[in-house]
UniProtKB/TrEMBL annotation:
GO terms for molecular function: cobalamin binding; metal ion binding; methylaspartate mutase activity. SUPFAM superfamilies: Cobalamin (vitamin B12)-binding domain. Belongs to the methylamine corrinoid protein family. It comes from Haloarchaeobius litoreus. The gene is glmS. Coiled coil: none annotated. It is an enzyme of class 5 (isomerase). This is Methylaspartate mutase subunit S. The lineage of its organism: Archaea, Methanobacteriati, Methanobacteriota, Stenosarchaea group, Halobacteria. Keywords: Cobalamin, Cobalt, Isomerase, Metal-binding. Residues 2-135 form the B12-binding domain. Its EC number is 5.4.99.1.
Length: 146
């Protein structure tokens, strides 16, 4: 079974470069990526996660309004019975001078992991492999050999 990841930029945010790079890197590593693009609502994330039976939901935000945009998101996922690992990353707070405080804020909102804007695609892949208990490269090799 491929590992399905929902990816998108939440709220009114239109910064597309980060998720485009993540989409390419995750796809190349063997993940099945549903890229919802920019300006994605909480409801669109939840609908896609439900439809694709997602293993992970990756929320991106760059423009400084992530905290407001993510209020109630995990409550919505719970109501829809979605049990996926959730990550958020990007430029999550205006200024972002104390990332540990930012991490606490988003962990309290329910995210399993919180990433800053220095995060590389390789770190995201390693975290997903660890959290989901998979090795995508091995899985890819298995598929090629099968
Ligand atoms: C290009 C850019 C724009 C372009 C966007 C073009 C486009 N369609 O993408 C334009 C000019 C349109 C723009 C507009 C705005 N921008 Co702008 N923009 C940038 C800029 C210069 C680069 C962003 C970028 O593409 N980076 C390159 C990619 C590869 O990096 P990345 O996005 O950070 O993604 C990486 C990581 O963050 C991480 N990552 C990202 N998402 C996720 C998600 C998960 C789950 C994980 C694990 C990892 C992860 O992985 C990615 C790959 O390594 C940044 C400054 C900067 N240097 O970051 C400002 C910046 C993000 N913008 C900013 C602002 C304020 C705005 C505006 C609000 C300005 C305005 N007043 O109009 C508007 C918002 C418009 C909107 N509705 O979104 C601020 C945000 C401030 C804050 N958060 O505190 C920044 C930081 C500039 C600044 N220093 O003030 N912007």
């Amino acid at each position: 079974m491929p590992t399905t990841v929902i990816l998108g930029v939440i709220g009114s945010d239109a910064h597309v470069v980060g998720i485009t790079i993540l989409d390419q890197a995750l796809s190349a590593a063997g993940f099945d990526v549903e890229n919802l693009g920019v300006q994605t609502s909480q409801e669109e994330f939840a609908a896609a996660a439900s439809e694709h039976d997602a293993d992970a939901v990756l929320v991106s935000s760059l423009y400084g309004h992530a905290e407001q945009d993510c209020q109630g998101f995990h409550e919505l996922l719970a109501r829809e019975d979605i049990d996926a690992t959730t990550y958020i990353g990007g430029n999550l707070a205006v200024g972002q001078d104390d990332f540990e405080q930012t991490r606490t804020t988003f962990r309290t909102l329910g995210f399993d992991r919180v990433f800053d804007s220095e995060t590389t695609p390789e770190e995201v892949i390693r975290s997903l492999e660890r959290d989901l208990g998979i090795s995508t490269r091995e899985a890819e090799t298995d598929r090629v050999q099968a």
